[in-house]
Amino acid sequence: MKKGELLYEGKGKKLYKTDDENLLIAEFKDDLTAFNAQKRGSEAGKGALNNKISTQIFRLLKEHGIQTHLVDTISETEQVIKKVDIIPLEVVVRNIATGSLTKRLGIVEGTILPLTLVEFYYKNDDLNDPLVNDEHCIVMNLVKSEKDLQILRHLGREINSILFKFFEEKGLKLVDFKVEFGVDKDGNIILADEISPDSCRFWDAKTNEKLDKDRFRQGIGEVKVAYEEVLRRILS
């Protein structure tokens, strides 16, 4: 497959056209960003780790019936993916209180939530990706209908159910995660983007050591070591 011109560059990936109009090549970057890119850095090898981790997770989800945009992994840092129209919502799924949830609502960090909380955030850097409710999504035409929001919630919870159990068996707490979805050429809503320590919070089940991008956000350090540990456990 021929790699064509650069179509889009985001915080964590570059997307390239291919000689198939329905397929793209996604290249994972070593860049690290936090707080809507106000904090920036880089970690050599991070892109390759995220590629491997996301590939394994997407394959696991496919085995459980979740449709994704992943077609194949073709190099250390590259995937062939289906071209989709991205729904401009970040679907955040929470099991344990931390981050913005504790700041907004005062829930003590580490509190196990009594239910799987699903939140929507409008993907807009200029507005700092604000939290939105169902009515906002409809008024702003972020989705076609309320049914789409129901599908996104269902998929978020279904993915959480699969991954929570999987990571629990690997000695990791899946604290929360962000996923994105897109509409494929047949009109199906499918999982897109990535699932990695850039987009998830993983805590060690025994020590609560953070093994995700919070190590960069909070200046803890050893980001690559943490990502390598997540990959090791996934493959174990």
Automatic annotation (TrEMBL):
Q: Which gene encodes it?
A: purC
Pfam families, per the entry: SAICAR_synt
Tell me its family: Belongs to the SAICAR synthetase family.
> Residue ranges of the SAICAR synthetase/ADE2 N-terminal domain?
6-233
What metabolic or biological pathway is this protein involved in?
A: Purine metabolism; IMP biosynthesis via de novo pathway; 5-amino-1-(5-phospho-D-ribosyl)imidazole-4-carboxamide from 5-amino-1-(5-phospho-D-ribosyl)imidazole-4-carboxylate: step 1/2
Spell out the CDD domains in the cross-references: SAICAR_synt_PurC
Instruction: Indicate what this protein is called per its UniProt record.
Output: Phosphoribosylaminoimidazole-succinocarboxamide synthase
What this protein catalyses is: 5-amino-1-(5-phospho-D-ribosyl)imidazole-4-carboxylate + L-aspartate + ATP = (2S)-2-[5-amino-1-(5-phospho-beta-D-ribosyl)imidazole-4-carboxamido]succinate + ADP + phosphate + 2 H(+)
One GO molecular-function annotation for this sequence?
A: phosphoribosylaminoimidazolesuccinocarboxamide synthase activity
Q: Which organism is it from?
A: Campylobacter gastrosuis
Per the UniProt record, which EC number(s) apply here?
6.3.2.6
Q: Which domain of life is it from?
A: Bacteria
Which keywords accompany this UniProt record?
Answer: ATP-binding, Ligase, Nucleotide-binding, Purine biosynthesis
Main EC class of this protein? ligase
